[in-house]
Design a protein that fits this description.
about 350 residues, alpha/beta, Nucleotidyltransferase, domain 5, 2 domains, 9 helices, binds 5'-O-[(R)-(carboxyoxy)(hydroxy)phosphoryl]adenosine, binds zinc ion
Length: about 350
């Protein structure tokens, strides 16, 4: 018999609901919050208010698109954390009350594990899913990690950022250049027409498999500030080259440690996940590196790179199989344990 899971994601500024039949996606609805563009970043209080307004319509559309009745649902999976507490509270409270009304279990999901398990969402066409164990480079707006994935319920972080995330490095670069929030896609677009070797930004020297992006961000800030003193149009005159050079430095850093992780673990099955995995430069560079190093790579579909509820539902499905349900007393966690 098939299992129908409703997934709810509300950790940051996207309100999303999805329905999966086992691992097959039936719907994945995302309401983006444009309000934050005005402020150049996510305003937590505004995010929670928007989630509150969006959650019921988004769930209704997800059920309608999936063409199922709410009484057919077997469980509701929701993001418990990490994320903005006020935002998480909306999804968590909704999931708890909806499940109570339907008399079905709730399943708590870690947002970062869900980004990784997004690789197991099936569409209409069959696709190649990762084989265990595999390594996943999770690169998002808040996190940068290399994770050894032994099974859906057994994952270990083997590398982590000690300060900023790769997504923050993209977003801050864009902000310095006067580009809108979120900046990653704008840097990506400009980098395609720029020269990655035009300017040199130093690769951070951090021990082991860990990352650091705050020094890179500061060196970009000082570099631009110094050049603006001589040429007030420096950014405008060099937009594409600045974007391409900074993107190149970020990708080189990300893939350098990933290469080391493969060498140290001997695992050649490699995946990327999270918002930054939408970056075309990263996708191309990983594909090229994988061919050279004889790795098998898994690059997510664009719709599953940034935050979405389908990844929450698929993670919920694996936990459902283990009857790993949460109690109605559960509360969200801004900094949840992995
Ligand atoms: O995973 P995600 O949607 O949210 C978090 O869990 O943080 O990631 C959002 C991040 C933002 O920093 C955004 O700028 C970045 O992903 N991003 C990109 C691209 N698309 C989204 N960064 C670089 N290139 C892109 N094409
Ligand atoms: Zn995310």
């Amino acid at each position: 018999m098939s299992t129908y899971i409703l997934g709810i994601e509300s950790s940051c500024d996207d309100t999303s609901a999805a329905v999966l039949k086992d691992t097959v996606i039936l719907s994945n609805v995302i309401a983006n919050q444009d309000i934050h563009k005005t402020y150049g970043g996510v305003v937590p209080e505004l995010a929670s208010r928007a989630h509150q307004q969006n959650i019921i319509p988004v769930v209704e559309v997800a059920l309608r698109k999936a063409n199922i009745q709410k009484k057919q649902l077997n469980a509701i999976a929701f993001t418990r954390g990490p994320g903005l507490l006020g935002s998480l509270l909306v999804g968590t409270s909704f999931a708890k009350s909806f499940a109570l009304g339907l008399n079905i279990p709730i399943i708590e999901v870690n947002h970062l594990k869900a980004h990784i398990l997004a690789h197991f969402i099936e569409g209409k066409d069959p696709k190649k899913i990762p084989e265990f164990p595999f390594l996943c480079l999770t690169v998002s707006g808040g996190h940068t990690q290399i994770v050894k994935v032994n099974s859906p319920s057994d994952m270990h972080i083997i590398g982590n950022t000690i300060d900023d995330a790769a997504g923050e490095a993209f977003d801050k670069t864009a902000k310095i250049m006067g580009l809108p929030y979120p900046g990653g896609p704008h840097i990506d677009r400009l980098a395609k027409i720029g020269n990655p070797e035009a300017f040199h930004f130093p690769e951070p020297k951090i021990q082991g498999l860990n990352y650091s992006f705050s020094g890179l961000k500061t060196s970009f800030l000082y570099f631009v500030r110094d050049h603006l003193k001589e040429n007030p149009d420096f950014i405008e005159d060099n937009k594409a080259n600045l974007a391409a050079s900074m993107q190149h430095a970020i990708i080189k850093t990300l893939l350098g440690k990933l290469k080391r992780a493969v060498r140290e673990t001997g695992i050649r099955e490699v995946a990327i996940a999270g918002g930054v995995s939408a970056n075309s430069g990263l996708r191309n560079a990983l594909t090229e590196l994988a061919q050279k190093e004889h790795w098998t790579t898994h690059i997510p579909e664009f719709q599953f790179t940034t935050d979405n509820a389908a990844m929450i539902a698929v993670t919920g499905y694996f936990k459902y199989l283990n009857k790993d349900f949460a109690s109605q007393n559960i509360a969200p966690l801004a900094k949840s344990l992995f």
